[in-house]
Amino acid sequence: MENRYNSLEEQIESEIDFDKLEELCEHITDAIREILTSCGLYFRIFSRVKSVESIAEKIRRGNYGTEENPKKIQDLLGVRVVLYYYDDLSICRDIMESTFKLVDNWSRASLNVNEFKATKINGVFNYPEEYLIAYKRELWTLPIDTTFEIQFRTMFFEGWHEIEHDMRYKSVLTDDEFWAGNEELSRILNCILANLELSDWSLVQLFEQLSYNHYKKGNWELMLKSHFRIKMDDMERLDDGIIQIFDNNREIAKMFFKFSRHNLIKELLKYDHPHVNYNLIVKLINDSHVHNEEISAICDNLSIQNEEHVYHKETFARLESNILFHLELPLFHKDTRKIESEFNSASSIIYKWVRFKLNPVFEDIPSELSAYKNKLPGYQVKIEYQPENLLLNVKMHYIDSRLVGTLWHVHTSVALLSDGRLHFYHMTSRDMPRGVSDHYTFLKPSFMTDLSNKVGITDIIRLNSKAAFVTNDEEYNRFKDLISDHDRMLPTVAIVQNEVSADSDTKNDEFRDGYDMNTFTINGTRLAKVVGHYCHVFMLDHDFAGTFARDNDIDKTTASGCICIFWPYAVNKPMDLFTRDMVCSTQFDFNKSAFHDDNINEKAFRHKLVQIIKDDNVSR
Q1: What pLDDT does 388 receive?
Q2: What integer pLDDT is reported at residue 395 of this predicted model?
Q3: What global pTM score does this model have?
Q4: Phi, psi of 223, rounded to the nearest 5 degrees
Q5: Cα→Cα distances 500→317, 516, 519, 579, Å
Q6: H-run or E-run covering 383
Q7: 83 sits in which H/E element
Q8: Which helix (DSSP H) or strand (DSSP E) does residue 25 occupy?
Q9: What is the DSSP annotation of 96-135?
Q10: Can you say whether the dihedral through the CA atoms of 320, 326, 328, 334 is positive or negative?
Q11: CA distances from 137 to 17, 56, 198 (A)
């Protein structure tokens, strides 16, 4: 048994990159902390990655991944959130369900009238894909899921949890054996648990009564503070005009007093790091529920400010290189333009971007396009400019002023090559320490929009930040030629229109190029706006669904509303097909837009599609 245990530990150490798991755990913990902080909840948060010994012990004890128990360990990463108020348990449960993808139902202690247990709820969620891609290693074969567990418990039960975990959960004795001959002590233990539960309930009731007392006395600020029980800047006083309205009309004040705490927190979650004060609370409640015109007039002059969150982590670690954007394509050439003019336009756009980034450091960088070279501690730039040879070559290296130990590298160029065409090249990469918390995996340079619109970038055809509509035979044949061209360098997304009912109601729908966007499974115009500089996006009229299915060996019944990605010939990847049902069942695994966006399935799949295209860009 001991030899098997040692070999299991060795397998765990060899298969799992614990440094990367720590980074992933930190990302998830930071995301939860950021959300709960934004809505003003009182909480403390802790997280951990299971140790090698703990994983091995749990696999042995539970016999995971066997025929008898095919279940896998789900809490390789664990997050524990301690809440100050009992009613925050249900609030936080709803927030997490909206933010991450829940694997199963929440588990909580079952209670009856004769038994007391620590109040807690546990939920298991999938790792967010946008964080998991940073793992950069084949996943383990061990019986461990790519899930993490969130535990919520109240402050009064936090200390009790440690006692219970060691004295009962990890005990080799059953409860009956543990307390045999000590029934009175067991009864006293239940009394302690009962008091903890009573304390949780009583604390909330106390503040509710306090809030009511302040409402009766017209202490409006104290009423808001005790009723909503969220972190706020209470040094900023409630506006005198609002106080006067409450004083003159207690029925209006009563509507604010009756507004649920849960709903206020939902309103706060629609903003990123709002600066919470009495006036903001009144504004949000009035906008969503009360709709008093006098209060609206006052609140219209109140600006919603954001809190500034600065996180510094001092650490030394080996640097890892990551490509965040890569593109190498010819520029678009018009017969009516001179190639020298196109070179000057492209070079000016890039130079303006470089100067904007570096001028705070290199104050002597010329305002007009020219060669330049300089170096300072942490910063280096070299601009080769040879207009006579139609060559612009820029290399920049600089430190990140926000992320510890992070170095950025940018190489971009425009050059006339032997084929007689101007070619554009850009590479953004980054070196950063392992374990530093930053989940950016893609970063397109901001000058791309200007370069694409004013000069143009081509991949067989000109790239565009708008989707191309296929509405007739000529357009379909051009689309067909593009996806079959062996010289195509970028992926192509085809979105086939759904079958449209003749009596469909479209009076409130969004239209583009004569189309109701709701007749497409995803909004291709919005997709192209994000990925159109490094991917082709086409939207096919439903009349071409049958032809499209036949040409690409797709079942005709699934062609309507489907989405396909045609990869470049050079990467040797088969076409990806997503049916309408697959799109409509897509969910976010980390939904940062859950609290202020509708049509979540469309947004979730579009987000997934964008990530697939971005991953392809940085992998080539």
Answers
A1: 96
A2: 97
A3: 0.69
A4: -60, -50
A5: 57, 10, 6, 16
A6: strand 379-386
A7: strand 77-83
A8: helix 18-38
A9: HHHHB-B-S--EE---BTTB----EEEEEEEPPHHHHGGG
A10: negative
A11: 8, 21, 48
- What is the reported pLDDT for 508? 40
Q: How far apart are the two ends of the chain, measured CA to CA in Å?
A: 47
Rounded to the nearest angstrom, the gap between the alpha carbon of residue 461 and the centroid of all alpha carbons in its chain is: 33
Residue 468: count of CB within 10 angstroms of its CB? 22
Rounded distance, CA 321 to CA 317, Å? Answer: 13
Output DSSP code: residue 517: G
Listed residue (532, 525, 529) closest to 511, CA to CA = 525
- Which contacts qualify for 46-49: CB closer than 8 Å, 24 or more apart? 46/79, 46/80, 46/81, 46/82, 47/77, 47/78, 47/79, 47/80, 48/77, 48/78, 49/18, 49/21, 49/22, 49/25, 49/76, 49/77, 49/78
Render pLDDT for 467-478 as a digit per residue (tens, 0 to 9). Answer: 999 999 999 999
Closest of 21, 71, 31 to residue 51, by C-alpha? 21
Sites in the chain below the pLDDT cut of 70: 1-6, 109-119, 160-179, 186, 304, 306-317, 434-440, 500-514, 593, 596-598
Find the radius of gyration of the CA atoms of the chain: 30
Question: What per-residue confidence (pLDDT) applies to 474?
Answer: 96
pLDDT at position 506:
43
Contact (Cβ atoms closer than 8 angstroms) between residue 49 and residue 55: no
Give the position of tokens 């009229």. 541
Q: What is the residue whose two structure tokens read 């007392």?
A: 213
Q: What pLDDT does residue 260 have?
A: 94
Q: How far apart are alpha carbons 279 and 266 in whole angstroms?
A: 17
Q: Tell me if residue 195 falls in helix, strand or coil.
A: helix
**Measured CA distances, 548 to 26, 541, 553, 595, 609 (Å):** 45, 10, 8, 38, 20
How far, in Å, CA of 34 to CA of 310, rounded? 12
H-helix segments, 320-433: 339-358
3-state secondary structure 269-297: CCCCCECCCHHHHHHHHHHHHHCCHHHHH
Phi, psi for residue 437 in degrees, rounded to 5: -80, 100
Q: Which residues of 50-73 are buried (b: 16+ CB within 10 A; e: fewer)?
A: beeeebbbbbeeeebeeeeeeebb
pLDDT of residue 66: 81
Beta strands in 193-350 (DSSP E): 319-330
Which pLDDT value is given to residue 372? 96
115 beta partners? 112
pLDDT tens across 353-371, in order? 999 999 999 999 999 999 9
List the beta bridge partners of residue 391.
Answer: 386, 415
8 Å CB contact between 12 and 142:
yes
State CA 494 to chain mean position distance.
Answer: 25
**What does the block give as tokens for 204?**
């909330």
